């Protein structure tokens, strides 16, 4: 099993603190080991690859947003704490811009999350937006502007619950969608839309 970057930052201190805990206060030590295991579980990063043509999901989770914005479709995927939080490119292309926007930390499944902290990864014809949630305080985009990304590549991760949206290219409309709200999807594999 491979892990997203940042796993060591959270898991190692817990494991180091667990050693004296197990020796002197076993319940505390075992609790710290369990917390470290939970962190590693959260940061798991399995290999994925797109199997079918189309726009693939940027995240594991549940489709929570399908809406039109200025004549284009936005599809958002809510990730709960049990989902894998490594995000993937829904389409290939060159990253034109990576923009961090500070904001609130409301639950990522609510309408109020439209004002949350976020990172936009803009491509020529689509945008991926990584949105922090109530507990997610760290967004880690991987590519920088100018990077060429293939469909399904890792593009970042968000620590501890959040949402990932894709603003589809202009040529896509509702009839191209292959998902609906409430559908469970997998990052880099589940097709969200197909022309």
Automatic annotation (TrEMBL):
<feature type="transmembrane region" description="Helical">
    <location>
        <begin position="12"/>
        <end position="43"/>
    </location>
</feature>
<keyword id="KW-0812">Transmembrane</keyword>
<keyword id="KW-0444">Lipid biosynthesis</keyword>
<dbReference type="GO" id="GO:0004609">
    <property type="term" value="F:phosphatidylserine decarboxylase activity"/>
</dbReference>
<keyword id="KW-0670">Pyruvate</keyword>
<keyword id="KW-0594">Phospholipid biosynthesis</keyword>
<keyword id="KW-0443">Lipid metabolism</keyword>
<keyword id="KW-0472">Membrane</keyword>
<keyword id="KW-0865">Zymogen</keyword>
<dbReference type="InterPro" id="IPR033175">
    <property type="entry name" value="PSD-A"/>
</dbReference>
<keyword id="KW-1208">Phospholipid metabolism</keyword>
<keyword id="KW-0456">Lyase</keyword>
<dbReference type="Pfam" id="PF02666">
    <property type="entry name" value="PS_Dcarbxylase"/>
</dbReference>
<protein>
    <submittedName>
        <fullName>Protein sorting system archaetidylserine decarboxylase</fullName>
    </submittedName>
</protein>
<dbReference type="InterPro" id="IPR003817">
    <property type="entry name" value="PS_Dcarbxylase"/>
</dbReference>
<keyword id="KW-1003">Cell membrane</keyword>
<keyword id="KW-0210">Decarboxylase</keyword>
<dbReference type="GO" id="GO:0008654">
    <property type="term" value="P:phospholipid biosynthetic process"/>
</dbReference>
<keyword id="KW-1133">Transmembrane helix</keyword>
